[in-house]
């Protein structure tokens, strides 16, 4: 079988690119298609450690090797992994292109439509759409997938369950969202890898709990996540936890956490997470009647959201600037 490979080109964002510049990869390159699973597992570890520049460069090598050798399964895995890295880096259009390239090849790759590879790819496709703010398309994508309501508890399916919780939350179904996230919490505890760097289910649940008036439970959950990430987490995980804590805590305490989140994320490579933190902080400043400062922060958040390719986040920033905070 011959697989035609045309890798999508990435957008150059100027001085502060969303996608990291290519760099050397601190890994032995794949010796061929049969070695790609080993190589991609190592790249996933690099991505999980926020070494996104090396992970992206390695994924591009994997795409080239798989395309040259006509390995459809390898191309699916490489495109899927590169999509994850691009999303984390904050280039959502590039992440969407790679995810769709992987989806186009899935049928000829030999992967089971309802198997772990398909579940991992689906979770990545939906996550990108949710970051962009396209909840309707994300819902249609999940509805068309060959997965029932009772997802298995394998690691790839736990990620899909977490992302399905995000979809439920964005679509206004807090009970379904919480059910998915609490199940994630139970399963990662059983497997002894309950850490926000794996699945940040606590902060996700806390945000939804705040929205339905369960403030005490929300504060407890997000405080646990902040404590965990302060001890062992990456800056990006801590910044996310602090960002949600800013939304959960009332008044000056919440504002202080939101400001800390922005400071922490300014030193992390996840640009979309920073953009979200800026918009969240701008909303809190607006609510606190600190309008000039709010406008400055929202302007920065809007600019970064547009560069990351998120119409949904950009629209939030514009609404707040016009005095209609959500």
Name its key features.
326 residues, mainly alpha, Serine Threonine Protein Phosphatase 5, Tetratricopeptide repeat, 3 domains, 15 helices, globular, disordered N terminus
Describe what you observe in this structure:
This protein is mainly alpha-helical and 326 residues long. It folds into 3 domains: 8-132, no CATH class; 158-261, Serine Threonine Protein Phosphatase 5, Tetratricopeptide repeat, CATH 1.25.40; 270-326. Helix content is 70%, strand content 0%. It contains 15 helices and no strands. The chain has helices at residues 36-48, 52-68, 72-89, 92-106, 116-132, 135-144, 155-170, 174-190, 201-211, 215-232, 235-248, 251-265, 271-287, 291-308, 311-321. Helix 7 (155-170) runs antiparallel to helix 8 (174-190) and helix 11 runs antiparallel to helix 12 (251-265). The longest helix is centred in the N-terminal third of the chain and has 18 residues, at 72-89. The chain is globular, with a radius of gyration of 19 Å.
In short:
Helix content is 70%, strand content 0%.
Count of all domains: 3
Mean pLDDT: 90
**Biggest beta sheet attributes:** none
How many E strands? 0
Number of helices: 15
SSE pattern, N- to C-terminal:
HHHHHHHHHHHHHHH
- Would you tell me the structural class of the helices and strands? mainly alpha
Bin the helical content: 55-70%
- Radius of gyration equals 19 Å
Morphology call: globular
